[in-house]
From TrEMBL:
Region (Disordered): 75-137, 199-250
Skewed-composition ranges (Acidic residues): 89-100
Record-given protein name: Uncharacterized protein
Biased composition (Basic and acidic residues): 75-88
Species, as recorded: Hoylesella timonensis CRIS 5C-B1
Taxonomic superkingdom: Bacteria
Length: 250
């Protein structure tokens, strides 16, 4: 993973101007990778945190006009496609006739007939409906159980992943797991954001301990394996050079 990738990605994700453009997580990672690649060759090894952050902010400000322009062009292309491939012609025709009193009367009459037919059919009181009700109730119960199992498996999988990262981190790990147990995530992306924050916090904690001559927190082998895995995943999600060029040329 590029040296400044995570810092650039975090700055992109927290920027209100970037959020307003509506880029996906994958697209942001692609942009962050390109910016980080440029910064790696420009920022000196002995640069302070303030200097690094300033360089990151300046780099993002520099590409902002291009990102805004690409989104404008993209939205224009989508709109042009929709106009060239209309799908609601019939609905539009119906809307044109909506104010016609005759049409309104006909629609009300047809709706009344449908309701009357439905009532005559007996609804849930038909023999078939009565026979199927126990089966449908059972299927509903099974679906609820499956949903609960999936939810439980997802929570356990996320917790196992976090526990592996926090193994041997003492109080730091205990506090983080306690916070995790009180949290809920709407999707995998939200959990991954949290996981990346924990990784970053752990790295900062270990850097402070190293500065004080103390041992790092966590199991070395497990932590290294997790870092490699994260790096591999980021490489998979990052856009290719061609994709970034295409985005810039829109």
């Amino acid at each position: 993973m590029k040296k400044h990738f995570r810092k650039v990605l975090e700055a992109l994700k927290t920027s209100k101007d970037i959020k307003a453009l509506g880029f996906s997580r994958r697209e942001l990672k692609g942009v962050a990778a390109k910016i980080a690649d440029k910064l790696d060759s420009e920022i000196k090894e002995d640069a302070t945190d303030e200097e690094i952050q300033e360089a990151v902010d300046d780099a993002i400000d520099a590409v902002m006009p291009f990102l805004q322009f690409s989104q404008v062009v993209s939205e224009r292309r989508v709109q042009s496609y929709k106009e060239a491939h209309p799908t609601n012609d019939e609905a539009d025709d119906d809307d044109d006739d909506a104010d016609d009193p005759v049409n309104q009367s006909n629609r009300k009459s047809q709706a009344s007939k449908k309701v009357k037919t439905s009532e005559d059919d007996g609804g849930d009181d038909t023999p078939l409906a009565k026979a199927l009700k126990p089966l449908m109730d059972k299927l509903d119960g099974m679906q609820s159980e499956i949903t609960a199992l999936k939810s439980g498996n997802t929570a356990n999988s996320r917790k196992s992943k976090l526990e592996k990262l926090l193994k041997g981190t003492g109080k730091f790990g205990e506090r983080t797991l306690k916070a995790f147990n009180r949290m809920s995530f709407k999707d995998d992306d939200e959990f991954e954001d949290f996981f990346e924050e924990v990784e970053s916090d752990l790295e900062s904690e270990n850097q402070e301990r190293a500065n004080q001559g103390l041992e790092k927190l966590g199991a070395p082998d497990a932590f290294a394996g997790q870092a490699n895995k994260r790096g591999s995943k980021n490489d998979e999600e990052i856009m290719s050079d061609d994709e970034v060029k295409e985005l810039a040329e829109l």
